[in-house]
Design goal:
By secondary structure, the chain is an alpha+beta fold. 29% of the residues lie in helices and 38% in strands. The protein has one domain: Nuclear Transport Factor 2, Chain: A, CATH 3.10.450.50. It is globular, with a radius of gyration of 22 Å.
Length: 181
């Protein structure tokens, strides 16, 4: 009888554990959680979890690059997009970015953007609208052929506004030998 009670208790515990597939951590998506801050030298502003749909916009943006669909990239940017490249170059419009992208892809047939991770955050300012930023770790490969292909690691920080890229900062580092494939 004692074994039967233990068996029944164990089965009840297992069944009740399986019937609740959503953990407390999975429910956090619907709650605002402070995950950091931004400092402008006079004030500190909370950074909180952002809109997960913005991550999909960034995915579509880099998928368009991988598909060599620069028109789709163009359409995912505001006309007055502002992008800061790791080499100090500034791109000040979607048209300028389109033209530069055409030139880049013409000499880099092996270009590929692989998103390794991506997160969306909101910066809650006091005196201006909240900004939505998607920060992504991306492995970027380029070259005219397989023999000349090189890869770098980038952290790309894109501000998403009204479903399009408004501003971006691109940080880059060379891969260590053990990271190269």
């Amino acid at each position: 009888m004692k074994k039967l009670i233990i068996l029944f208790s164990t089965l009840t515990l297992i069944i009740s554990s399986c019937s609740n597939p959503v953990s407390k951590n999975q429910n956090i998506e619907n709650k605002t959680v402070v995950i950091g801050y931004e400092n402008d030298n006079t004030s500190k502003y909370n950074i909180v979890n952002g809109d997960i749909n913005s991550v999909e916009i960034v995915k579509a943006y880099f998928d368009a690059y991988n598909n060599r669909d620069l028109q789709a990239v163009y359409e995912l940017e505001h006309e007055d997009v502002l992008l800061y490249a790791p080499n100090g170059m500034m791109i000040e419009s979607s048209k300028q970015h389109l033209e530069g992208g055409e030139k880049f892809l013409a000499v880099n047939q092996f270009a590929k953007w692989e998103i390794i991770w991506s997160i969306s955050t909101h910066v809650n300012f006091e005196n201006k609208p909240t900004e939505n930023w998607v920060t992504s770790g991306i492995l970027v490969s380029s070259g005219k052929d397989e023999a000349s292909k090189t890869s770098v690691s980038r952290v790309v920080d894109l501000m998403i506004k009204d479903g399009k890229v408004k501003k971006g900062f691109i940080h880059q580092r060379q891969l260590a030998e053990n990271e190269k494939s």
